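Appendix B, Record 12. Input sequence as logged:
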Amino acid sequence: MPSRMRVYLTIDTESSMGGAWQNPSLRPLPAEKRVFCRIDGKDYGIGWQCDRLEERGLRATFFCEVLCSLVLGEKEVKSYLDYLLERGQDVQLHVHPNYYFYAEKLWADARGLDYSPPSSPDAIGALSPENQATVLSMAVEIFEYLTGQRPVAFRAGSYSANLRTLAILSQFGVRIDSSFNPVYHAAGSFSGERLPVNRPFLAEGLLELPVTVVRQSLPAPNKPRGLVPLEICALSEREMRASLDRLHEAGLSDAVIVHHSFACVKAGDVQYRRMRPDKVVMRRFEALLDHLAAHPERFEVVTMSSLAANPSHPEDEIPEVIPSLGYWRPLMRTVQQAVNLIM
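Logged structural output:
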């Protein structure tokens, strides 16, 4: 029987530009909309997620975006950082450089100056090493100022990072990165680098924990090589359970699952003026937690900070396994998601 597999529940916690680049009358969204996701006073974002985790005695790593404080103000960002810390969850660093460049644009506009942002303002990996260092240094500084602690783990917005990013992060004391997503490899996630899939590895002084992926036989234009991330919005309850079971049976040491603060709501527009609960995704989230909590002999749910405190060295003999979901399960999930989209 394989030993227990470490499972990392990671939740990217972030605002949204809300169409502000395209429409000068709009602004990025407040935490109430995209982080807490409050509908008629009820929380369907991180509050609902924390409740479900606590009911099962589990903790997640919330990768929290902080550069939006340059636009929304520090009080807005501190509201969800403090909330998560008070709930006993693991809080780590997430960066969308969009907000850094948008703040520069607002500053230039206020002074009547011309301003041209980078061609890919939200892709940290597409920036020059100098710009990467500037943005990441500011993000680490803001995170430490607002939380009172240094981040030990990092995830790039849109998974856009490269080996230069890791080298810079290591200088700031970050010890773990979880930005490599093989599904986005050709779209900026360590593009051009040959990296292991579904197993930890050391790079530029950091431990890289890639987002775990599975493979489906169902053709899909947005899923290169048939790869699908272990993401609650991307897989059905049955697919998620089967994926975890097969990864464990294959002897993998670590599995990284992705979720988002806003994933349990449906938004009617980019400004989230109209929202309603996404009951399909909510059921998937609870089903996943139930499966993990019901099988402690197979799965050890851990956080990035706990791994950083007790680091393990990746072993080359760990297999590079990508479980197959076949054809029918993905087809059934695709139909379910299409129906859910219009309901």
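DSSP finds eleven helices and 15 strands in the chain.
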